[in-house]
Design goal:
Oligomer: single chain
Number of helices: 21
Radius of gyration: 63 Å
Number of strands: 24
Strand content: 5-15%
Largest sheet: 6 strands, antiparallel
Shape: extended
Strand order of the largest sheet: 2-1-4-5-6-7
Distance between the termini: 34 Å
Mean pLDDT: 79
């Protein structure tokens, strides 16, 4: 397993899409300081989930996005993809290649990808957990981390040990369990406090509830007495009310006379109003009739117009066309008369218009003269103002242009000197680049040819391997299918053997015999007979109890079995002696029915020795398809013969038969029928499948051997090497070509630019001289323009005053002219319209005249309809005068009735005043009655509000011996008792029950939380024990490896050891390192030199790799503090581990470069933008230097 590919785009200084491909072994990344080498290390860290910006050498995470340069815009996204070959299955996934991606956008949003599928950060963290490749693991080590590993803070050091021990997952689970325990204990504490608080509240509510009960009893008695007293008061008020009503009636008689007069007046008024209503109704009806008449006339006229229009449009109605011609002739005559009138009117109007327009023209001329004079002065002022402003603007522009051109000429002089120097330098480098291009082209051609040959060989090898793999898959699939069938057959054999060896279907005696002689084969009649399933129920019915008989060879066998049963007091059994069976009877003949056959023909025996037994037991048994067939077949039979149906029903020759519903199954004993036969068949199938499996295993082994022999790995390695060589050659060629073209373009651009600079400089000098002269002349022109503008503005003020006076006179003349012109225009427009209508009528008349010959029949019909409409309209018009007279008559009647109503209303007002005076006395009585009613109402409402009772509908029965005074005294006493009780919580009883229920619920919750607390503590203890065991095991292994590797690095006599500060707390204890370089006493880590610290950290790192290797390791300049000898030891150690771990080294050291398998170079040709290049050793040394 190794890191195979790293893709960057927009990450830190890698603005372009950049791809690094890695192979197993050691890869070195070189380049000068500040070129972006460490950004590659940061990219790996970032891709595997690093969330701390400081670790990535940034203040905030957004800083990892390329932030632009002087010539490049910032990018909006950073993306890194990391491809890992999971060929050893270290990562817990089924994929052999895993690509982890991460994107960060400028707005702060981010995405995580796994094999191009969006996922969560947690998914990536879980994938790398306990593999040594996580963000906090030991797969990426930087120089600054050496001090952190060996510093006084041991948190980073512990994290490496935990990752190697694989307890990160356990610590995470423990952390989650501790968090849950903390939450549970917090909830438990809160529940306990709440339970205690509510318990106190329940006790208080219990006391309040008792107090409320006493209060309710007194309140109930008080309510009863108050209701009785209210009923007594109600009865008293009712008596007073009746007396007042009598007095009120006396006063009411006096007012009745006046009321009668008022009613008579009102009746007369009502009659008049009714008359008025009738008159108004009549008026409305007549007006409606008039409206209907008018509507009918309009309808008929509309229909008449519609008929005419139809005649005009259809051109198929001759009568309509003729009528239209007549109407057109009349209209033309009328229009001609109208034209004559309009001509006369125009003759009168035009002279007046001429006079008015002459006056208007004179006023216009005066106004135009004044306006022209003012406009001329305004234009002159505007021109002078613009000239003055233009002069000032031009002067300012000249000054700004002069300053700008002066600065520009100075810049051009500097740029010209720089361009000349650069051209000389570029011409020197051009020839060297051309030679590099030719050399790179030759190398690329060789690499391309090598790659083509390698790919052809790989394709052939992979095709052969795919064919071998297909053969192996096919053979393995066949083997799996055979093994599945064999296992199913073996399971069937085991099941049948268990069923055959079990005698649970029989009574205790047979089970005893079977258990007593486990080595012997105890057989019953059911064991030695077999049949098909559809006959099983019938055979079971035919055998009956005989199916359970034990089959033995001789009487001696039976005697021995009986003796064992007798000795054990195990019951009795029935035996069937094979040597005592009579000779087989002759084959039975079937009844004379096609569907009936001897039952014996359907029964098989376990061996020939049992055939005679079957013949005897089934000699008189027959099989029929149904009970009806059995009954029909039993008639001709004689003796004890029986005919059985598949349902178990039977009929015998003596007239007995058994029937009913079909038996769902046979008897338990009958289930053994044919079971031994099934067992033998199952064994045969199992043995045959076993033989086929063994044969197929040989086929699979041959296919696997063939697949292993067809290994394309050597060809694939050659292709990778050729691709890498071609990629390097492409990069070198592209880089050389790009540099050559860039140099040529830069040189041509510089030459062209130099010519432009010199031309522009000369032009600028000429323009600067001209501008200086123009600035001097422009100052004088500005002063002259300002003086001319001031003089013209004074003349303009006088001209505008004259213009306003002329405009007012023109407006008055214009109004008169507009009126006269409108009159003439209206007459001319009417005359023109009349002429147009005449022309239109003449045109239509010509058209309709041409159609008359073809439309006679239709025109006659239309003329009849038109005549009918004319007659109806004329008839309706003749009725109009009578309808108008009726309306006038109705209106007069309404006016007379309204006058009578006014007189009647005056009389009614006088009568009402008299009646009101008579009613005063009655009202006085009514007031007192109202007071009584009010008291009654208040009493009833009070009782209703206080006691929710209506004494009117539901009166209280007052006892005869009720003492009102005694009741009032009792009420007073009860009120005193209630006051003594004091304030009462009316909801105490209900609240007590609610809080009591809540208290019980909380106590149940408390118990649940206490149980959960105990469970979590047990879980944490279990996690601690497991994690501690794994940590101790790993720690001891690392400790031994560290001591060994430390001695290898520092030489004989050097030693070092690891120890836990608190061995009783292995999961949190700090890890101390005691180092003793050769010739020194044991010292603390702070006393070691920089190189010694580095070697110590390397020893610790590689001792961890011995215990749990990381698939890849990235070391960022960790060899910087080492001298040559220590670098040699360091690289030897790297070589020792390169078979298990892939190493990627960021370095400046020449010895490290020399020992690497391959190298990448990182440059920064453009400031702020890193670029990846392939390098040779000499180039790498030059870049690093």
């Amino acid at each position: 397993m190794y890191l195979s590919r790293l893709d960057l785009h927009g990450f830190k200084s890698f603005a372009h899409e950049t791809t690094l491909t890695f192979a197993p072994g050691v890869t070195a990344i070189v380049g000068p300081n500040g070129c972006g080498k460490s950004n590659i290390v940061d990219a790996v860290r970032w891709a595997i989930g690093e969330q701390r910006p400081t670790v990535l050498r940034s203040e905030k995470m957004e800083n990892v996005i390329f932030n632009g340069t002087a010539d490049r815009k910032p990018l909006g996204m950073a993306e890194v993809q990391l491809t890992i070959e999971n060929n050893r299955g270290v990562l817990p996934t089924e994929y052999s290649e895993v690509t982890i991606g991460r994107r960060l956008f400028r707005d702060g949003t981010s995405e995580y990808l796994m094999n191009n599928t969006q996922c969560r950060l947690k998914d990536i963290t879980d994938l790398f957990m306990d593999t040594g490749m996580g963000a906090d693991a030991y797969s990426v080590i930087e120089l600054k981390m050496i001090d952190e590993l060996l510093s006084g803070s041991t948190e980073d050091r512990r994290r490496m040990f935990e990752e190697a021990a694989g307890i990160t997952r356990y610590k995470m689970r423990r952390k989650q369990a501790l968090r849950k325990l903390d939450n549970t204990q917090t909830d438990l504490s809160r529940i306990r406090d709440l339970t205690e608080e509510i318990s106190t509240q329940v006790d208080r509510l219990k006391r309040q509830a008792e107090k409320a009960r006493q209060y309710n009893e007194a309140e109930s008695e008080l309510r009863r007495l108050e209701v009785l007293l209210a009923q007594v008061e109600l009865d008293r008020l009712v008596d007073k009310r009746e007396a007042l009503r009598a007095k009120r009636a006396e006063h009411a008689d006096e007012a009745e006379t006046r009321q009668a007069e008022e009613e008579a007046a009102e009746e007369r008024l009502a009659a008049l109003r009714e008359t008025l209503s009738d008159d108004e109704a009549t008026l409305r009806e007549r007006r409606e009739a008039l409206q209907e008449h008018r509507a009918r006339v309009r309808e008929l006229e509309s229909e008449q117009r519609l008929q005419r229009e139809r005649l005009d449009r259809a051109r198929t109605d001759r009568d309509r066309t003729r009528q239209a011609l007549d109407e057109a002739t009349e209209r033309r005559t009328a229009l001609e008369e109208r034209i004559k009138d309009l001509d006369a009117a125009l003759a009168e109007a035009r002279p007046s218009l001429d006079d008015v327009e002459a006056d208007l023209e004179a006023a216009r001329e005066r106004r135009d003269e004044a306006t022209a004079a003012a406009d001329a002065l305004r234009e002159e002022v505007r021109v002078l103002r613009r000239r003055a402003q233009d002069a000032e603007d031009e002067q300012n522009d000249r000054r700004r242009t002069l300053d700008r051109l002066t600065n520009r000429r100075e810049l051009l002089d500097d740029e010209r000197d720089r361009a000349r120097e650069q051209i000389r330098s570029l011409e020197t480098d051009a020839e060297a680049l051309s030679a590099r291009v030719r050399e790179a082209e030759a190398k690329r051609a060789d690499a391309q040819e090598t790659l083509t040959d390698a790919r052809d060989a790989l394709e052939a090898a992979e095709a052969e391997r795919e064919e071998r793999a297909f053969d192996l898959d096919e053979a393995e699939e066949t083997l799996r299918e055979l093994e599945r069938q064999r296992d199913a057959a073996a399971a069937e054999v085991d099941l049948l053997e268990g069923l055959v060896s079990s005698y649970d279907e029989f009574d205790d005696a047979i089970q005893f015999l079977a258990d007593e002689a486990p080595g012997a084969d105890l057989q019953t009649v059911a064991d030695v007979l077999a049949c098909d399933d559809e006959v099983r129920v019938a055979l079971d019915a035919a055998l009956g109890d005989l199916a359970a008989c034990v089959v033995v060879g001789t009487a001696a066998d039976a005697d021995r079995a009986i003796a064992r049963l007798r000795n054990a007091d195990a019951g009795q059994a029935t035996f069937l002696l094979l040597d005592r069976l009579p000779d087989a009877p002759p084959a039975p003949s079937s009844p004379n029915r096609d569907a009936v056959s001897p039952l014996r023909e359907h029964v098989r025996t376990a061996s020939d020795a049992h055939a005679r037994m079957a013949d005897i037991l089934l000699q008189d048994a027959y099989l029929a398809p149904s009970l009806e067939d059995a009954r029909a077949a039993a008639g001709p039979l004689e003796g004890p013969a029986r005919v059985f149906a598949p349902t178990g029903e039977w009929v015998d020759a003596r007239g007995l038969f058994k029937g009913g519903s079909r038996l769902a199954t046979a008897s338990p004993v009958a289930s053994r029928l044919g079971r031994r036969e099934q067992l033998e068949q199952a064994r045969d199938r199992r043995d045959a499948l076993q033989a086929r499996c063994e044969e197929q295993e040989g086929v699979v082994a041959d296919a696997r051997a063939a697949l292993d022999a067809a290994d394309p790995s050597p060809y694939r390695n050659k292709v990778r090497e050729a691709e890498a060589a071609l990629a390097e050659a492409d990069q070198a060629l592209e880089r050389a070509r790009y540099e050559r073209e860039s140099l040529k373009e830069r040189r041509d651009d510089l030459k062209e630019r130099l010519e432009e600079i010199e031309a522009e400089a000369q032009e600028l000098s000429d323009r600067i001289d001209q501008l200086r002269a123009q600035v001097h002349d422009g100052a004088e022109r500005v002063r002259t323009r300002r003086r001319e503008r001031a003089e013209a503005e004074a003349d303009l003020d006088e001209a505008e005053e004259r213009e306003r006076a002329a405009a007012e006179a023109f407006s008055e003349a214009q109004v008169a002219a507009v009126e006269a012109r409108n009159r003439v225009d209206t007459l001319e427009r009417e005359r023109e319209q009349a002429l147009e209508r005449v022309e239109e009528l003449e045109r239509r008349m010509e058209e309709r005249t041409a159609q008359l010959d073809d439309l006679r029949a239709t025109i006659e019909t239309a003329l009849d309809a038109q005549s009918e409409l004319d007659e109806k309209i004329e008839a309706l018009r003749s009725e109009r005068s009578s309808i108008d007279d009726a309306v006038e008559t109705a209106e007069a009647s309404v006016q007379r009735t309204k006058s009578a109503i006014e007189d009647c209303e005056d009389n009614l007002r006088q009568v009402r005043q008299a009646r009101e005076h008579a009613s005063t006395a009655e009202n006085d009585a009514a007031v007192r009655l109202a007071e009584i009613d009010t008291r009654l109402q208040d009493l009833l409402e009070s009782v209703s509000d206080d006691f929710d009772r209506d004494l009117t509908d539901d009166p209280v029965a007052v006892p005869d011996d009720f003492d009102e005074a005694e009741a009032q005294a009792t009420v007073k006493s009860l009120r005193g008792r209630i006051n003594a009780i004091g304030s009462v919580n009316p909801l105490a009883l209900e609240e007590y029950e609610e809080e009591k229920e809540r208290l019980d619920f909380l106590r149940e919750q408390q118990q649940d939380l206490e149980d959960a607390e105990a469970t979590l503590m047990e879980t944490i203890e279990e996690i601690n024990e497991t994690a501690a065991e794994r940590f101790f095991e790993t720690f001891d292994e690392i400790k031994d490896s560290f001591s060994e590797i430390f001695t290898d690095l520092f030489g004989e006599g050097a030693s070092a050891k690891l120890q836990l500060e608190d061995r009783d707390d292995p999961l949190d204890s700090a890890i101390e390192i005691i180092a003793q370089p050769r010739g020194k006493r044991p010292v603390t880590l702070e006393q070691l030199s920089s190189g010694e610290k580095t070697l110590t950290a390397i020893a610790l790192l590689f001792s961890i790799y011995l215990v749990k290797p990381s698939p890849f390791c990235i070391l960022d300049e960790v060899d910087a503090p080492l001298d040559d000898a220590n670098v040699e030891r360091f690289m030897n150690l790297v070589r020792r581990f390169e078979d298990q771990t892939q190493f990627i080294l960021v370095t400046h050291n020449q010895r490290t470069m020399a020992l690497a398998d391959r190298m990448y170079g990182v440059t920064m040709e453009e400031q702020g933008v890193s670029k990846l290049v392939g390098v040779e050793f000499d180039e790498a040394v030059e870049m690093a230097g």
